[in-house]
Each structure stands twice: as structure tokens, then as C-alpha cells.
Amino acid sequence: MKGWLKYLLFLAVILAMVVWLGGFLDKKEKPAEVSRPAKVVSGLEFGQVKKVEVLDAPYAGQVVADKRVELSTRVMGKIVGLYVKEGQRVSPGQLLVSVDAQDIQAQVSAVEHQIKQAEQALASANAHYEAVRKTFERYSQLLKEGAVTPQEFDQIKAQHDAAKAQVEQAKAGLRAVQSQRQAIASNLSYTSLTSPVGGVVVQKRADVGDLAVPGQPLLVIEAPPYLFEVFLPERLVGRLKVGEEYEVYLPTLKKSTKAKVVEVSQALDPVSRTFRVKLQLQETEGVKSGMYGSLLFPERVEALLVPESAVVRRFDFTGVWVLRPDNTLELRFVKLGEKRGDKVEVLSGLKEGEKVVVRGTEKACEGCRVGG
Fold this sequence. Notes:
By secondary structure, the protein is of the alpha+beta class. 28% of the residues lie in helices and 38% in strands.
């Protein structure tokens, strides 16, 4: 009995030491985030985002070339010469690409031999026919005089008809090999590719030593004039007419140019509910195919505008510093539209009434508190 008491007493001592060492008897503090005071910035100027009525509504589009030629060959062979570079201007008829023509030239030589053989066969058939024809005419006269039997005449007539058929067969054989030579000669012309238009080489998809494959483009040439292609909403159907002039803004060149409507599609895209319009640009200096731009169509719309000085650009990021209700700053991504004077249109990312930093953006920082 005393042994059990000693054992229980030992366990009680051990349990007390575990509780004490584990800190279970200490007063616990609730976990909480360590608050750090926000950095205070000053010297910032703010502006309120307002919705303004503008007269010109922008519709995004891109510059396209009036003519786009993808130059390819009809024969397979190794490229032995490529005489232009991307960006180079070319004139009509200028030699651009040469393809190895040894195989085709060998085919031409073989066909020339076949033509000579066919000509010889035709000459032989004609000579044989002339001899048989004279005999046939003589036997025809003899048959009238009763000097030969009908059976003898029929034999000569059969020989005459056979000789005449051989002549026609030889002529057909000669025409066949001549047509073959013409087809091969046509393929030979595709080993020297020339420019069909005057324009600019915008893509070079092959180089010397590459294998030219029939139908695979080797060069892409674009020829002016340059057009502006834009897709407009269904509600504008009938508002634009061929020959009318509008303004097109090209942000890359930072300029606007007049453009005349040259094509208006009569069909609507069933998914986007838009129709295509093409306008010919009047000023094309510096213009390149694929440039982004906007057609400024005269109609009253509302837009959110912010000063250009408020926009923060970092690589591909475009944003503005927004003042939160708790007087701290937030760098928010925005999608921009057209530039209008010293202001720029905000398509998304801001709401009317919010305040943004318009001066001192270099001092702003994420989560900073605005001071005096």
C-alpha cells in the first residue's frame, strides 16, 4: 500500500513540473498584429475625378495596308538567292528570290529529247501515210476499171486508214510532250520570284539555304496607300458614308490626321454586333501597318478625365495614386483611352468623385498617410 502512494506522489510531482515548465500557469496575452506607424508624405496636390461630356467619341482600330502580297513559289527547291531585307522598298518586277532550278532544267532537257522523238515519229508516220495514200488512190482507179477485185481494194483501204490513224496518233503524242514542256517552263519561271507591286517588305520568312515549299510564303510585301480599319457598334449603322472625312488619332506618332471613308461593310458581326469601316489616311509619314489608333466620331458622350500629370507609367503598368477614405494612398491600375488636351480619358479603374494625386506623384508611396 505504501508503494502505491509513493508511485502516485512521484507522478504528481512530475505532472506539476511539466505544467510549470510549459508556462501553463503564466498569464496569456492575446495575439495581435504589430502596428507600425504609416509614413507621412506632404506636398501633394489632389484633383477630383469628374465625369465630363465630350463631343468626340473614340473607337479603337489599326492601320492596315491597302495591298498585302504573300510571295511564294510553286516549286520545291533550295533558296540560292534572297536579295531584300525587311523594311526595304521594292519596285514592280524587281528580282527578290532565286530558287535552285537544276531539277526543273533537267526535266526540260528530258522533255526536249521526247519532243525530238515525237517529231521524228510524226515524220515517219507522214512518210508512210503518203506512200500508202498513193497506192490507195491508184487502187481506187483500178477498182473503177475492174482491174482489181474488191477484196484487194479493201486490203489497201485498211492499210490507208491505219496509216492515217498513225499520223493522228503521232500528232497527239507531239502535242502532249509540247504541253508538258510548257508546264515545266512555267514552273521554271517560279524559280525567279519578282515583286508584283511596288511597296515595302514587311516580313522575311526564309533565308538563303532554306527549302522553298510550294504555297509557303517567303516574303510579305505591303503597298500603300495605308488604311485605318475600325469596327463600329451597330447603333452607328448608316451614320458613315463613303467619301466622308473624319479625324484619326495615332498615339504612337502623337498626331491626328484626316481620313476619308473608302469602304463600309454592309454585314454585322453576329457576336460583337459591329461592322467594319476602312478609311484612307491622308498623312502617312511615319505610319506603319499594325499601328494602333482611334477614330474620333462626332457624338456626345460622357467620360472620366484625369490630368496627364496624374498618370504613373512603370513598364507595362499604367496607374494613378488614389486617396483612400482613411487618408492613405493606393496605387491603382487604370485603363486609359484617348488624350484630350492636357487630360486623358480613363476607361476603367476609377469612379467619379474619387481623388487622385495630380502633382508630386514621385513622393507618393503605397499605404502612406497624407500630411499637411
